[in-house]
Design brief:
alpha/beta; five-stranded mixed sheet; 9 helices; 41% helix; transcription; DNA-binding
Length: 301
Amino acid sequence: MDLFQAMRVYVKVVEAGSLTAAAQACSISTTMVSNHLRALEERLGVSLLQRTTRRQRLTEFGTAYYERCLEVLGLVAESEQLAEQAQGDPTGTLRITAPLTFGSEVLAPALVEFSRRFPEVRLDLVLTNQRLDMIDNGFDVAIRLGNIPESSPLIARPLQDYTLTICAAPDYLARHGTPTHPDDLRAHNCLAFAYPAGDEWRTAGTQWRMTGAEGEVLVEVSGSMVANTSAGLYQAARAGLGIVMLPDALVQRDLQDGRLVALFPDYHLPRRPTHLLYVQDRYRLPKLRSFVEYATGLWGR
């Protein structure tokens, strides 16, 4: 049994409130969480949790052990940081989280050169559109779309805005005609992105907003497909199903090669601010500092 890993899992079980929630936070199975707890209890010879089908409750010893785990894990983390700082050269595991499309189309290819420059840094990349808590999930750095709350304790370095393009395949335009004004979209098959509840761009799925010489134009669009991933819409659009509004990071090469055609070049689409986030106290770590300098050199404003 990896004692430190078991202690980390136990802390997460206590803080998350259930084995299932802890498993999601630790990116492991519920069975593995249960195995870690059982191994800890067997090693200690004492029960840590009283579990029923509906709830879990810490035993008296479990409460005291949780506090001691926090102390031990905190000391281990501080010791690792001191070791990394003492070495000087970037080394160790760099844990990064980023949005799906940006992460797969922009960040992942750029990490090839980063790895060549800093071969002793191991990259742990988590791509998701969920805004995972950096500290609770052990991330060193995050790339986030949208506005950052002023109350955020994290350092936010601005990157280039996340931009969009309305486009379609030449085959679709040959069969249905090319719209020349945003209002023409009402007569076309527009493929919409299903933004999750609470997203600041939720209405952008079916209401496409753009600005031209006449001011802001808001068009209610509809079509035969709604998808919760840009990749799904991208493949459907390339196959000629309809018109889409997609991130430039995803369609730029297809626009250059003619596999997709950009529409409404005289109109400006909404842009999303993009930031690189990290905890200030960790910036002195060579692995994080080297990545921040590399990323802002590529995409900084």
